[in-house]
Write a structure and sequence with these properties.
Radius of gyration: 20 Å
Helix content: 25-40%
Order of helices and strands: EHEEEEHEHEEHHEHEHEHE
Distance between the termini: 22 Å
Strand order of the largest sheet: 9-7-8-6-2-10-11-1-12
Number of helices: 8
Strand content: 25-35%
Shape: globular
């Protein structure tokens, strides 16, 4: 397994990658929220004198802020920014490759028009809805609690899809289907329920907008083979890299944010990831 973390402008880095050299592209670009995305990085230390949480055998711990990470998520012309990067992502995909574009309601409609033009409308396979139930509730409109993941294949018929690799989920009404089916579980639809990465969970890296490993692992397991190359050129916290490495895939992660590079280098060191600077 080989893993590369590249610090640099993703458009310039993409231009150096050979055409038809990547099996899977998954990107989670900025959503154009109009604000700066930040997250406070915390560490937990023992505090027998008080603390704000209780651990094993009643021991007390407190949380300390050790830094903040983030990026500016504001674009005057988001389609103009993303279009050339989508085109480069399409170019580096192999004929059997797939492209997963993770967005939200703000720009996904513009992105789909761009992707239709790049791949052809017949290459659109799914719009996956990642639904979660966490965070503030609006009193002026229905709270937005989902992201959109667009899946396109280079070839509308020949693409990687391992049905048997899909993780099964519990039936909502197991008594209706019987004990055998209930024990086996069911395959998900195009709506994936998964909680966000908790700020105090074991998975957290401290990077703003980190996506759950379970979501990206499902994509990697079903849409690639061992030894395939997975690419994320808005890599952020490096979730695609961990998902790929855990399942014997190679990965290329690109980001121009030094904080992101630091998080990825720490997170993926155990997989032998190498940091390069473009």
């Amino acid at each position: 397994m080989a893993g590369r973390i590249i610090e640099g402008d993703n458009l310039a880095v993409l231009a150096t990658l050979p055409s038809a050299s990547v099996d899977l592209v998954y990107i989670d670009p900025p959503f154009n929220t109009g604000r700066r995305q930040t997250r406070t990085q915390l560490r937990t230390v023992r505090d027998d004198g008080g603390g704000d949480r209780t651990g094993f055998q009643g021991r007390r711990y407190r949380s300390e802020a050790v830094g903040r990470s983030g990026y500016d998520d504001r674009f005057v012309d988001f389609p103009g920014f993303i279009a050339p990067r989508l085109a480069e992502g399409r170019r580096v995909l192999k004929p059997t490759g797939s492209f997963f574009l993770h967005m939200d309601y703000r720009e996904v409609h513009y992105a789909k028009v761009l992707m239709d033009a790049l791949f052809g409308r017949d290459a659109f396979q799914n719009e996956i809805i990642w639904a979660y139930d966490y965070g503030a509730r609006s009193k002026r409109r229905w709270p937005a609690k989902h992201d959109n993941i667009l899946w396109y294949s280079v070839d509308s018929e020949a693409y990687t899809f391992h049905y048997d690799a899909i993780d099964r989920i519990p039936y909502l009404a197991p008594g209706i289907v019987g004990p055998e089916k209930a024990a086996r579980g069911k395959t998900p639809t195009d709506v994936w329920w998964q909680t966000i990465v908790s700020t105090n969970g074991r998975e957290k890296t401290g990077y703003a907008t980190q996506k759950p490993l379970a979501i990206v692992e499902r994509i990697v397991k079903v849409h690639t083979n061992p030894g395939d190359v997975c690419l994320d050129f808005f890599a952020g916290s490096g979730t695609l890299g961990e998902a790929a490495a855990k399942h014997g895939r190679d990965f290329i992660l690109v980001d121009d944010n030094p904080a992101a590079i630091e998080v990825m280098a720490r997170r993926l060191a155990r997989y032998g990831a190498v940091v390069e600077r473009a």
